[in-house]
Amino acid sequence: MAFVKLGSKSEAFRREGQAWHCTSGLPSDVTIEIGEMSFYLHKFPLISRSGLLAKLIKESSNDDGSVCVLQLSDIPGGAKAFELVAKFCYGVKLELTPLNIVSLRCASEYLQMTEETGDGNLITQTEVFLNDVFGNWTDTIKALETCEEVLPHAEELHIVSRCINSLAMKACTDTKLFNWPVSENGQEGTTGADIWNGISAEKRTQPLTDDWWYEDVSFLSLPLYKRLIQAVEAGGMSPENIAGALVFYAKKYIPLMNRQASFKDATSHTKSGSTISTPSEADQRVLLEEIMELLPNQKGVTETRFLLRLLRTAMMLQASPSCRENLERRVGLQLDQAALDDVLIPNMGYSVETLYDIDCFQRILDHFMSIEQASSASSPCIMEESQLMEGSLPLTSLTRVSNLVDSYLAEVAPDVNFKFPKFQSLAATIPDFARPLSDGIYRAIDIYLKAHPWLTDSEREQICRLMNCQKLSLEACTHAAQNERLPLRVIVQILFFEQLRLRTSISGWFFVSDNLDNSQSSIRGGNRDTNTANGRGSSINDMRERVAELEKECNSMKQEFKKVVKTKKRWNVFCGKKSQCDLNTVKPCKIQPPPVNEHKNHKKGDSN
């Protein structure tokens, strides 16, 4: 820490209770009263340095030679600052440090200690040292912290703005280009001298990351911290770095963001033995709303998880509606980056119905969909079903949100107070093309039907329309065929599409096999006909085995369907005798591949 020594005389004051006396031996002829403290001094040293004291002493002096008493209760820095001023006037030794320079500079201005009153006066001395303080990161922070004690006077003298501009300039500067005496946790960015075999090595500069200044400035009060953030933003700092500083500050002073943290964790990040008391809920609410205004608006700059934690805390602290709406909008802007655990926001208060705040998630989802629809200039691309099943295409933001919504619905579906219209509205917000597979929404529907057995047949039909039966995987189709909670029409539809898919798959196998045989026969000739025939025969044998497996799966699904139908009491009313006859007449699909000999004769005819 920088310092400057002034004066040459030894200590000439002694304190007795609430009074300071000069030990020069001469009787005191002026008394300065500041609050409860009294200074018994002499007129000449004060008049020779302070224009204000010279004026007050002249106005209050009496011809009878009585002691002059002056009241200076409004002097910046109080009695502590005036003690140093008195030492300066008497030429007693004192030190200017970053901890007292601001109060001394303000007191000297208040007392009019200019060069006109005396050469090398206190205003000049403090200004010179202030410029030295501004050149050091740590000293500037200490000086800025002391501005709180004399804030109006420091603002008038532009000391606060000069401190903030100095810090902002250093924070925005690339530490790799300039060797600023910056630090982490108040320690300079160099290692101590290493001693090896009695030899002291030179200090090595440690590389500093972009967040090196976060903790140092986090000890500033909210108004000063806010001005610093605005200054670094104006200085061209990246939004990611600004957001990181605000996140650090919020986690430090809003302990409700992590209710599992202990009191020590909530008031952590102390340095040099300093302690920070836990802010009240009112202070935390004000801080949260201010941080919300300072956060950069760009998408992806602030983590979605932090925004959701901030939103949850805003509800707990009962922040303003505009603050919560702004948070919901920002979360909706990057909802595709959210995780399920983060969007499960508990309902606050005692008059709520559902365990989680489903309305809040609906509003966030609406924000996302409005932005997605506005940014989508073209229609959604068409993807092959095989690619969707295998997951070979990258997931778009809308697809990621659809998976999040399906998982959210499955998580909140067991809540018996989760009304059917809200479930339907939330699930229908995602368009069908955004779901490559319907397994997620089917799982949510199944859980909801299990937790709400009182739903009418019409409501069951409506909720099942939310999923596309053609996009169910084989495992989901097998489960749905045995699901007694689904309407019979849905089960029939699922089985129909699954059988259609099986037939299409089998036809595709034969089509590929025939094309492969044709290409091989056109390229190969002569002595390789025998090898081709053998390979073709082996391929057809494999195809027959695959066809047999598919027929077995199809028959198995049909048997399961018959079991489900028998358990339905309303089957006779719904289907009647005609449907029963149609079911008994259904035969397993048999797709017989052509014999090997026919393929051989066909190939020989082509060659001829």
Automatic annotation (TrEMBL):
Coiled-coil features, chain-numbered ranges: 540-567
InterPro entries in the record: BTB/POZ_dom (IPR000210), NPH3/RPT2-like (IPR043454), NPH3_dom (IPR027356), SKP1/BTB/POZ_sf (IPR011333)
Keywords: Coiled coil, Ubl conjugation pathway
Keyword Transmembrane: no
Keyword Coiled coil: yes
GO biological process: protein ubiquitination
Region (Disordered) residue spans: 588-608
Name of the protein described by the UniProt record: Btbpoz domain-containing protein
